[in-house]
């Protein structure tokens, strides 16, 4: 079966943003008079968007986590994160891998739970402003991954069937979203998945590095 569209997650899949996320979380915690946490702790909170990241940070410290408390803390986090996204880097092989996939005729899409407001700046910094046919953030639609709606929206917008697309991610949210709409799912083992092995989510295939992922896609679907 051929494929024409590859939908990528962002954090933990294409970019390592853990240091910047941890810095923003810890600045938020400091402003709330709460103890800072280690970067590996923050990594275990990443995956369902920044609002849930903040909720987990407050819950971790036993701080109030009602709607108002999370909203106010989230606004602090967003303000801090917008000031510091300087240490985010692409994972090994991603720059060349995306170019290889495009050279082989695949269309690329981006579906992340990160707030949309941050995406243009990150993509520009990575040199990927023109790499994706469509870009969705976690607040672009009423629901986000693991709901399948964003993936369905991408396929509808690009005019392709679900069977013609692949979801690539590092988190169970990515795999669950793909499975929920019947899409082929591929996983990368190096990202953020709440401290759980991504293989336990039973993707169609899993890879240790981006080069291996790209080679497999080209060999399998071209």
TrEMBL record:
Gene Ontology CC terms, in alphabetical order: cytosol
Superkingdom in the source lineage: Bacteria
Keyword Magnesium: yes
Pfam families: HAD_2
Active site per UniProt: 9 (nucleophile)
GO molecular-function terms, A-Z: metal ion binding; phosphoglycolate phosphatase activity
Known catalytic reactions: 2-phosphoglycolate + H2O = glycolate + phosphate
GO terms (BP aspect): carbohydrate metabolic process; DNA repair; glycolate biosynthetic process
Record flagged with keyword Hydrolase: yes
Binding site for Mg(2+): 9, 11, 170
UniProt xrefs under InterPro entries: HAD-like_hydrolase_sf (IPR050155), HAD-like_sf (IPR036412), HAD-SF_hydro_IA (IPR006439), HAD_2 (IPR041492), HAD_sf (IPR023214), PGP-like_dom2 (IPR023198), PGPase_prok (IPR037512)
Cofactor(s) in the UniProt record: Mg(2+)
Regions crossing the membrane: none
Pathway: Organic acid metabolism; glycolate biosynthesis; glycolate from 2-phosphoglycolate: step 1/1
EC number(s) per entry: 3.1.3.18
Keyword field: Carbohydrate metabolism, Hydrolase, Magnesium, Metal-binding
PANTHER family linked to this entry: PHOSPHOGLYCOLATE PHOSPHATASE
Function in brief: Specifically catalyzes the dephosphorylation of 2-phosphoglycolate. Is involved in the dissimilation of the intracellular 2-phosphoglycolate formed during the DNA repair of 3'-phosphoglycolate ends, a major class of DNA lesions induced by oxidative stress.
Family, similarity comment: Belongs to the HAD-like hydrolase superfamily. CbbY/CbbZ/Gph/YieH family.
Protein name: Phosphoglycolate phosphatase
């Amino acid at each position: 079966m051929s494929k024409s569209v590859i939908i990528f997650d962002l954090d933990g899949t294409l970019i390592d943003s853990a240091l910047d996320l941890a810095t923003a979380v810890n600045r938020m915690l400091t402003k709330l008079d709460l103890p800072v946490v280690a970067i590996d702790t923050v990594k275990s909170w990443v995956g369902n968007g920044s609002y849930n990241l903040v909720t987990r940070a407050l819950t971790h410290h036993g701080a109030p986590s009602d709607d108002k408390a999370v909203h106010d803390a989230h606004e602090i986090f967003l303000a801090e994160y917008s000031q510091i996204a300087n240490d985010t880097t692409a994972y090994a092989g991603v720059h060349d891998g995306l170019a290889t996939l495009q050279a082989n005729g695949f269309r690329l899409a981006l579906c992340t739970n990160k707030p949309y407001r941050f995406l243009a700046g990150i993509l520009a910094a990575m040199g990927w402003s023109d790499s994706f046919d469509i870009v969705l953030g976690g607040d672009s639609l009423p629901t986000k991954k693991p709901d399948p709606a964003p993936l369905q929206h991408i396929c509808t917008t690009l005019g392709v069937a679900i069977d013609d697309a692949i979801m690539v991610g590092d988190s169970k949210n990515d795999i669950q979203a793909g499975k929920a709409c019947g899409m082929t799912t591929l996983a990368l083992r190096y990202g953020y998945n709440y401290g759980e092995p991504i293989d336990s989510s039973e993707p169609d295939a899993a890879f240790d590095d981006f080069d291996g992922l790209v080679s497999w896609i080209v060999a399998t679907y071209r």
